[in-house]
Amino acid sequence: MIAQTRASLFVTAVCLMTPITMWGQDQLKVKAMRAAPRQTSLYEITFTTTETLAADAEIRVMFPSTYDLGGFEIAGSTTINGGFTFKREGQRVTIQRTGLGSSIPRGQKVSLQLGLIKNPPLFANAEPVRIEVLHSRKATTAAKAFTSSVEFQAR
Fold first, then answer.
1. What is the pLDDT of residue 18?
2. What is the distance of C-alpha 18 from the center of its chain?
3. 135-149 mean pLDDT
4. Which residue segments constitute the domains of the chain, with CATH numbers given?
């Protein structure tokens, strides 16, 4: 039996433009597509899988209270097939793969788009955004923590 893993990724939201390298060559990037305080934006989360991302994988994103998720209604991906469901509970967004798509092998770059999310009032003092990837519902190993920055992209 192959042990499935769960990786927690902690993203520090500061106005820097450099992604982090994690697990060697793998990268995590979180980008707000609109760089304006208190403005609604689409967010893109991109990472390279470190383990096989099963067809039933779950991705959880926890936004601090400085982000307004009241208008959240969009979740999509061009790299994760088979569809998924999503829900918001307070400041947490949960993306659940339906089980209909194929597994995504280790080393593949995947991305998610989430919106509509209102940016924090101050980028310089933005609080951390926590991202947790549960590679399979059957995952049993402890989480690993990593840090990156949120890129606020000018239009």
1. 27
2. 16
3. 55
4. 6-152 (2.60.40)
Model pLDDT, residue 116: 96
Torsion angle of alpha carbons 106, 109, 87, 60, nearest 10°? 60
Most confidently modeled range among 4-13, 57-66, 132-141: 57-66
Beta strand 26-32 with 149-152: parallel, antiparallel or unpaired?
parallel
Are the C-beta atoms of 97 and 80 separated by less than 8 Å?
Answer: yes
Full 3-state SS string of the chain: CCCCCEEEEEEEEEECCCCEEECCCEEEEEEECCCCCCCEEEEEEEEECCCCECCCCEEEEECCCCCECCCCCEEECCCCCCCEEEEEECCEEEEEECCCCCCECCCCEEEEEEEEEECCCCCCCCCCEEEEEECCCCCCCCCCCCCCEEEECCC
Nearest to 92 by CA among 119, 121, 65, 110: 65
Confidence of residue 122 (pLDDT cuts 50, 70, 90): confident
Dihedral (C-alpha) 1, 5, 74, 67: value to the nearest 10 degrees? 160
- Does residue 2 have a pLDDT over 60? no
